[in-house]
Amino acid sequence: MTIDTIILRLGEIYPPGKFTSSDPFRCLISTVLSQRTRDEVTYSATEKLFSRFGTPSEIACAGTDEIEALIREAGFYRTKAPRIKEIARIIQDEFKGKVPDNMETLLTLPGVGRKTANCVLVNGFGKDAIAVDTHVHRISNRLGLVATKTPEETEKELYRTIPKEHWKYINEFLVRFGQDICRPVGPKCGACPIIDLCPTGTSRLTGIK
DNA sequence: AAAACGGGGGC
DNA sequence: GCCCCAGTTTT
């Protein structure tokens, strides 16, 4: 099966498990920080924030300007800082300090959309889901796994196409793959480990189309 | 449907 | 120095 080959080869390049040991709250906050931001920067900003504050109540009580200073390098800090503070307050006040473990409730939090919620469900709670961002959406279409216009359609199609055992790897593998090889513009098809499985890349290398 | 948010990294 | 980037909310 081609999807098995894709997962196998990407797994050799990107050893999994970078996200899976995070506790749900840290996972939630770091995922909000990661929105429209490269992951190395996200790790750094998350580390700075959590080396200063460890719990929802601590972040809820912190000054917005102090949070801004800690997460500044992740970008959009004037939007993200108050959101993080509000998320922490809601987790503490309305959910007894526990991050919700279902899509419907997660979506009620400020700054949490479908992609962020799925990341929390997969990486924070070990649930079966696929977090579809622009990388997953783009690459799934390039590989011909789907033919879709929106991330929501892509997610739906991937659930039909991909065996459940692989779901948890999809986001992490494709994001990293999408950052250093299968980039939005100027993909490095010559260095691609799955070029033989890619209609788009194969035609690019052979000069066809 | 489109705008707005932003510092960091590649070239 | 210019251009691009792990979404979500607001207009």
Structure description:
With 209 residues, the chain is mostly helical. It folds into two domains: 2-15 and 131-206, Orthogonal Bundle (Endonuclease Iii, domain 2); 24-124, Orthogonal Bundle (Endonuclease III, domain 1). Helix content is 60%, strand content 0%. The chain contains twelve helices and no strands. It has helices at 2-13, 24-33, 39-52, 56-61, 64-71, 77-94, 103-106, 114-124, 134-142, 151-161, 167-180, 199-206. The radius of gyration is 18 Å and the shape is elongated. The protein binds a DNA duplex (11 and 11 nucleotides) through helix 3, helix 6, helix 8, helix 9 and helix 11.
Q: Which class of the largest domain in CATH terms?
A: Mainly Alpha
Strand content: under 5%
CATH superfamily of the largest domain: Hypothetical protein, domain 2
Helix and strand composition category: mainly alpha
CATH architecture label name of the largest domain: Orthogonal Bundle
Bin the helical content.
55-70%
**Residue runs with pLDDT of under 50 for 5 or more positions:** none
Query: What would the CATH topology of the largest domain be?
Result: Endonuclease III, domain 1
Taking Cα atoms only, what radius of gyration do you get, to the nearest Å?
18 Å
What is the end-to-end distance? 26 Å
Task: Sum up the overall morphology in one term.
Answer: elongated
Number of domains: 2
Number of strands: 0
